[in-house]
Design brief:
Elements (H helix, E strand, L loop, with lengths): L1 H25 L27 E12 L9 H11 L6 E11 L4 H16 L6 E8 L3 H4 L1 E12 L20 H10 L17 H12 L15
Parallel strand pairs: 2-3
Antiparallel strand pairs: 1-4, 2-4
């Protein structure tokens, strides 16, 4: 009898243990702070990919309207063009195209308008490729317009205000995002984010002189400068 009683108690304990294991698999345990110090892979989540500073090429378009039969740029259109070109202050301009849509009898006027805009862009230090479109204008208003298309590469600054998920005691900040944002604001050429620049030719005479001064213990002293801070 005692042996049977012991067997019954053991079986009940095993059933209870199995129930605990099953319930443990279905619960959403925290893999970091769980009391038994075990990792429950069913609750694991990949942290979002760290945002990085990147270069992106944008296509910018602007329509310049002319008065019927005129190739002169009005003051209003000049101001609107200037505001459009303000977008080019940051980044690198890859290509500029100026296109006129041909109307019924405005071939000569279209060519004059293209020259006018090319000269206006040159005032801003921009060189444009000019051409007339192979497709005719669909309306009289469209025939009086010239389209400027600019491919411009800029640096995309990551948004560090987006919080990480706080589940499983992960940090609620974008780790490394501030460094990437600082890099994005400092880079001179957006293309440098994709590929570094090649070294230019070295001056063997200058480089050799530095090595010679080092060997002969005649290193130039650094120039003393003050930042003005007390």
């Amino acid at each position: 009898m005692p042996r049977r009683t012991n067997h019954t108690i053991l079986t009940a304990g095993a059933v209870a243990l199995a129930a605990m294991v099953v319930s443990g698999c279905t619960k959403d345990y925290n893999p970091v702070t769980h009391i038994d110090n075990t990792i429950h892979y069913g609750a694991w989540q990949q942290m979002p990919y760290r945002q990085k500073a990147t270069a992106e090429t944008l296509a910018l378009e602007h329509q310049v309207s002319f008065e019927a039969g005129s190739a002169g740029l009005s003051p209003v259109e000049q101001l609107q063009l200037q505001a459009f070109l303000e977008q080019l202050r940051e980044g690198v301009t890859e290509r500029i195209e100026v296109t006129a849509l041909l109307g019924a009898e405005n071939d000569g006027v279209a060519a004059s308008r293209l020259r006018t805009l090319a000269a206006e862009l040159a005032r801003y230090g921009l060189e444009a490729n000019v051409a007339t479109s192979t497709s005719p204008a669909q309306s009289d208003a469209e025939a009086e317009q010239v389209r400027i298309t600019i491919l411009h590469t800029v640096v995309m600054i990551p948004d560090c205000s987006v919080e990480q998920p706080t589940r499983n005691k992960r940090p609620d900040i974008q780790i490394g995002c501030t460094t990437e944002a600082n890099l994005a604001t400092m880079v001179a050429d957006p293309h440098d984010l994709a590929q570094g620049r090649e070294f230019g030719p070295g001056d063997a005479t200058v480089l050799g002189a530095g090595v010679s001064r080092y060997k002969n213990d005649k290193i130039k002293t650094l120039k003393a400068e003050s930042t003005g801070a007390n």
